[in-house]
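Reopening this ticket.

The earlier resolution said the output was attached, but the attachment link was broken on my side. Pasting everything inline this time so it's all in one place.
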Amino acid sequence: MQFLYASEFHAPVEALFSFHERPDAFELLTPHWSGVALVRRTGGLETGAEVEIEIPLGPFRRRWLAVHTEYEKNRLFTDEQREGPFARWIHSHEFTPLGTNRSRLTDRVDLALPGGPLVNLAAALPVRLQLRRLFRYRHEVTRRHLEASAAAAAGSPGAGRRLGVAGSGSGATD
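Inline output:
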């Protein structure tokens, strides 16, 4: 199953990529409603870096280990599940410059659920809806942090305020 979510930002591609390199980026981009807990992280975004999380699956928690397999500064990074709930999970984060102060972030996920083609067919819609909700949240957090950084750099009165994002996850389109 393939999933794609893209957004344009009023920020240079370097600022967009730099936000994702922040040591606290994973925590910032993890919705409070997801129940995801960071267990450990080694490295940043570079090839070979690892992130271990725990995710809720019903009343249980499941370990998920992702390894970064590609890294090109200001262009892309890719993480792949090595252990976790999916039969396959490859997530590419692609950064495209669109001009001096504009860029695009494209999240591209190639995934398969355990259980074969019928399970994947039956679960396609709910999985897509959940991923759309997650990536809409993540892109909105990214947008707000980039706007706050730009305001701080410009000396705007709203600079330095804490940001929060809330939402139901309804209403997005691919």
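Reporter confirms the inline version is readable. The longest strand covers residues 60-72. Residues 117-154 form the longest helix (38 residues).
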